[in-house]
Design brief:
This protein has 659 residues and is α+β, with helices and mostly antiparallel strands. The chain folds into five domains: 83 residues, Phosphorylase Kinase, domain 1 (2-Layer Sandwich); 168 residues, Orthogonal Bundle (Transferase(Phosphotransferase), domain 1); 142 residues, no CATH class; 140 residues, no CATH class; 34 residues. It is 51% helix and 10% strand. It has 28 helices and eleven strands. It has a five-stranded antiparallel sheet with strand order 1-2-3-5-4. A two-stranded antiparallel sheet has the order 6-7. The longest helix has 30 residues.
């Protein structure tokens, strides 16, 4: 049961509503039986668009399947806990099912689909929300008979995750599905154009071409002609599709242009005429390339050969010869860093980094290309989440090196010379790179994972089968885990510390202390106590009996090492009393093991010094005195001197009296 209202049926999957971010299941509204809803069980490693969810939940958009509720629940009697969203369900099938080789007439597209899309996108774009999941499979009829048209949900995964490349603008189509980035309204307009084209053709755009040849065709012929496979689309619909599928984002039709088209007005768009063509064909691997973007793709495909080829060039002269529309600046030359010496290391990191920088220069509006990965500038966070979700150590290591100075930070600076998006995001990505390269507790790559994915749950292995999406949920999960985990320090791995430092910045310093002294159990346990006490207060959780008991059990051996019997007995008595109350704040205040150890050590040292002085004095007094002992001789001389003086005084006194 979600939100004490919506019943989920895990035994009734709905594959037509599955998304890259989760699996769909039947659901019902127990208060309003006639309302159509379905449940989406989210995948743990896929970050959702939480800000989109919250906006649509509070204020539903017209002609969109809006979320109604979201809660972490247990799926099945003994299943794992998962995040489950309840979403409005369509009454009719998706357009992809309705098509199946049958085209939709231009009249229906103009009278039904386009007006519905205008309503939906006007509602979304007015809030600066980009749908980023428009395709025939996510376009639904409102009723079994047809009726109105609805756009499916758009928050369960990263933007573009569910879109085939043909529905993405050219600059994002070549990025990996999980790393296509947020984009903007122009990406929605392109996806709408490709969806209308698919409806008109009755099939997927692009024909039978493979992905590589289709990209080349789109670059050479333009997306409209490549996706339509040369089939003419006459009349006003053809005009609309040419406008929506324009490869120049500045020239592509906007929502206002689409509205004007419905009113039989022809938009007047101005092209910037960006040139991607070399002044003369470039030869690489015995192939000739006229377009910079295609050469960038080829260099990324064969990085080691590309690095050798790049180093063989007199690059400033080559640049002036082949890229005449731009100037080779000192800054660009410095960022490219074309060193003559090859990288002889086993990983060839320098070669791969060089190719990443060269691809950024050739295709500044395209994705970042790195070791077989293509990552949109605004898709770095989801790309990192995908690497951790794969649980592939090599993929994670590749992403770690991606943040090295010579890779992503340099490539972003190169792109920023021409790409406004790169210029806007450069600072944030540079900061993320610095954090990723910092080898300190609560920093590093794991911290960047949570910083760049604010809605991602904690992926710590300690929480297998649990969905931990907030600091409060993490504390409760730790409280349950503490009953089974023998060692408290092992529960605070890099994911737990990185997640907490990212979600609660105020506790970053305390979290950093937890892993700073792994060989000092007392300091580590003290830092854990400080962190847990702070979080219990911050999250306003009254009792955490499991953690309090585990903390107490962990403190007992350390208290047992105190040398003062009185202090030991008093601390153990206090500890036993506080363990029963479940308050880490009170436990921490009364049993600060570092302070107690410091006071105990100081008191022991003072007592030892006093004992040593007394022992030395005792031994001194009990020693055997010999006639030739220097001190005895000195005392004898002093005693003899005193007696002599007294005798002299007595003699003088007697002599004086007698006289």
């Amino acid at each position: 049961m979600v939100a004490k209202r919506f019943a989920v049926d895990p035994g009734h999957p709905l594959p037509a509503l599955d998304r890259g971010g989760g699996k769909a299941f039947a659901a019902s509204d127990t208060r309003e039986a006639s309302r159509r809803v379905y449940a989406l069980v989210h995948k743990k490693g896929v970050p959702q668009r939480a800000e989109v969810l919250e906006s649509l939940r509070i204020s539903p958009a017209s002609n969109v399947l809006n979320p109604l509720a979201q809660e972490v629940v247990r799926v099945g009697p003994k299943g794992p806990t998962r995040l489950v969203s309840i979403i409005e369900a369509p009454g009719g099938p998706p357009f992809s099912d309705a098509l199946k080789g049958h085209s939709v007439s231009s009249h229906i597209l103009r009278k039904m689909v386009v007006p519905a899309a205008i309503k939906a996108l006007s509602a979304l774009h007015g809030r600066d929300i980009w749908h980023r999941a428009i395709r025939p499979g996510n376009l639904f009829f409102a009723t079994p008979e047809g009726g109105d048209v609805l756009l499916g949900e758009c928050f369960s995964g990263p933007p573009g995750l569910d879109l085939p490349a043909v529905y993405e603008p050219l600059e994002r189509a070549t990025a990996d599905p999980h790393a296509r980035g947020t984009g903007g309204p122009d990406a929605d307009m392109f996806a709408l154009g490709a969806t209308l084209l698919a409806c008109y053709l009755g099939r997927e755009p692009g024909g039978q071409r493979d992905s590589e040849s289709l990209v080349r065709a789109r670059i050479a012929q333009g997306s409209f002609w490549a996706l339509s496979a040369g089939q003419e689309v006459p009349g006003l619909l053809g005009l609309l599709l040419r406008g929506l599928l324009n490869d120049d984002p500045e020239e592509r039709w906007t929502l206002d242009d689409l509205i004007a088209w419905t009113e039989s007005a022809t938009p007047n768009r101005r092209s910037l005429n960006l040139s991607w063509t070399f002044a003369r064909p470039v030869s690489f691997r015995r192939q000739s390339f006229s377009d910079r973007r295609i050469l960038a793709r080829e260099l990324a495909k064969y990085p080691l050969e590309a690095a050798a080829w790049l180093r063989s060039l007199d690059f400033p002269l080559w640049f002036q010869t082949y890229i005449t529309a731009e100037n080779m600046t000192e800054k660009l030359e410095r960022l490219l860093d074309l060193r003559a010496d090859p990288d002889l290391s086993s990983t060839h990191h320098g070669d791969h980094a060089l190719v990443a920088r060269a691809c950024a220069m050739l295709d500044p509006f395209g994705p970042l290309r790195w070791r077989g990965r293509s990552i949109a500038i605004d898709g770095v966070g989801p790309a990192l989440a995908a690497a951790f979700a794969e649980q592939d150590e090599q993929a994670i290591e590749d992403m770690r090196r991606f943040f090295d100075n010579g890779v992503m930070p340099a490539a972003i600076e190169i792109m920023a010379e021409r790409n406004p998006l790169a210029h806007r995001t450069a600072f944030d990505l540079q900061q993320a790179a610095k954090t990723a390269r910092t080898e300190q507790p609560a920093k590093g790559l794991v911290r960047v994972l949570y910083d760049l994915n604010p809605a991602l749950p904690c992926l710590s292995p300690a929480f297998k089968g649990l969905w931990v999406g907030t600091p409060a949920a993490l504390l409760i999960a730790l409280d349950r885990t503490a009953r089974k985990q023998a060692e408290l320090a092992k529960m605070f791995d890099a994911h737990v510390l990185g997640f907490l430092a990212s979600r609660v910045p105020e506790c970053e310093r305390i979290a950093a202390r937890v892993g700073a002294t792994p060989k000092d159990p007392a300091r580590t346990l003290s830092a854990i106590g400080d962190l847990l006490a702070f979080l219990q207060q911050h999250c306003k959780i009254a009792e955490l009996p499991g953690l309090t008991e585990r903390m107490g059990e962990s403190l007992k051996p350390l208290i047992g090492r105190l040398r003062s019997r009185k202090r030991r007995e008093e601390c153990l008595k206090t500890l036993k009393e506080e363990m029963r109350k479940g308050s880490l704040v009170r436990l921490r205040a009364s049993t600060d093991i570092v302070r107690l150890s410091r006071e105990d050590t100081a008191a022991y040292q003072r007592a030892r010094w006093a004992w040593e002085r007394l022992e030395a004095r005792r031994k001194h007094l009990l020693r055997k005195v010999l006639p030739n002992d220097p001190e005895a001789m000195a005392l004898g001389y002093r005693g003899a001197s005193v007696l002599g003086v007294l005798a002299l005084i007595a003699t003088l006194t007697i002599t004086f009296i007698a006289s």
